[in-house]
Amino acid sequence: MSQSIQDFGIEKSLSNLGISAENKGVSSGGKYFANGDLLESYSPTDGKLIGKVTTANTADYDQVIETAKKAYVEFRQIPAPKRGELVRQFGLKLREYKDDLGKLVSYEMGKSFQEGLGEVQEMIDICDYAVGLSRQLHGYTMHSERPGHRMYEQYHPLGIIGIISAFNFPVAVWSWNTALAWICGNVTIWKPSEKAPLCGIACQNIITEVLKENNLPEGISTMIVGDHVIGDKMVNDKNVALISFTGSTKVGRIVGTNVAQRFGKSILELGGNNAIIFTENADLNMSIIGAVFGAVGTAGQRCTSTRRLIIHESIFEDVKNRLVKAYGQIKIGNPLDENNHVGPLIDQQAVQQYLDSIEKCKKEGGKFVVEGGVLEGENYESGCYVKPCIAEVENSYEIVQHETFAPILYIMKYKTLDEAIAMQNDVPQGLSSAIMTTDMRQAELFLSQNGSDCGIANVNIGTSGAEIGGAFGGEKETGGGRESGSDVWKYYMRRQTNTINYTDSLPLAQGIKFDL
Ligand code: UN1
């Protein structure tokens, strides 16, 4: 019996979040406006139109920049702990809207409701983190080589921070950037994914409430739904001090180059090709759960999704059989229904890429031990539901070197741990990695300078599901950026070194004499 989407309360959530059938996609200065083309947002869950959004044209963009510039002059003068208070209140509002926003994420993007809630939880966590940090934007003091001199460093805001985010984390990535950017005294301009624009409008509505309640200018947080023309404008605009871009390596290469060209700053979060090494000492019960969640969670559309399993030859058959059994139990369907593990891919284009990758893999010699395919019939009308699949491959296959945003898991054998680590590292991307082992020598080798070359390296945990407190990001073609925890806040500020002479003479550094 097919359940209608109303049974999951989506209409009510949309109305609570201020989403209408027709929406304006630009919010700045306390009002919504937009004069560009019309964008329609369809749900991959049931193929239905959720709402329409008028996107920005270039004149709208210019207006957004002007509003943001004005707001910045005001906002940077508010003390950091007071800016933290804004973020604290935002975190409280997110708790109120958690259920509604989690549901919208699930409906518009297709991840399971549980994962939608998890994403909003990441937003709440980064707010809590940023509130504490707003009293800890520490700089060093140093001993000067000159007598009667004091030397220290301080951090100032950068200005306007541009955030261009992807469909797969349609709300959390914005908040990782904004929560830190705001406590640091910056204002933000967000271009949400064109594949999840209503999530953008919902978030903007929530922060607008907080800004209004505190009588703060809305230019602190502006949003602009637009296509690549607007993206290009942001990237090439010297008014935008830092661009935080999440997306493909292909687009990230262009973004990084263009921002560098104008000496802007960038944070790039690009593709991953994440592997888990299963050693002969792995605790298989927990390892299988980690691998399966990593591979099929968010239908394989996380940057951190597990794409490769590198398995010791002595346990290869056992692991393969357990995986086949586990995949047999996966329920695919409406992500709002909590009985299902896996929802749809984002759209038909993603389905085509999934099918093309399977085809390529087969051509290169891949042997599918769990077959893929597109689900059809009742409950799958959107045409975006696909079967998570597993292929036995060689790491060197061209398709294995490539990130496909879909639930395709590649498995391969190794003999020695050195060989496994070399395979793990032998891809262009460097985001996340993991080893499953109960042997501390193996674990420590994996974490050493001779081990994983990724930004994230885990032991006895899968590749996805990183916590807010750590720096998130990766090396090589993943782009080198870091977001959220640790000392990542420094990316959003400019460092200034100050030397103060409190004597009545002017000794020069390096012992230089300059007498007049
Ligand atoms: C992403 O896929 O772009 O580690 C981010 C995770 C999440 C973030 C993923 N915390 O899986």
Automatic annotation (TrEMBL):
Its EC number is 1.2.1.3. One of its GO terms (molecular function) is aldehyde dehydrogenase (NAD+) activity. The keyword Acyltransferase does not apply. It is an enzyme of class 1 (oxidoreductase). The active site is at E269. Transmembrane segments: none annotated. Residues 39-497 form the Aldehyde dehydrogenase domain. The keyword Glycoprotein does not apply. Homotetramer. PANTHER family: ALPHA-AMINOADIPIC SEMIALDEHYDE DEHYDROGENASE. This is aldehyde dehydrogenase (NAD(+)). It comes from Kaistella chaponensis.
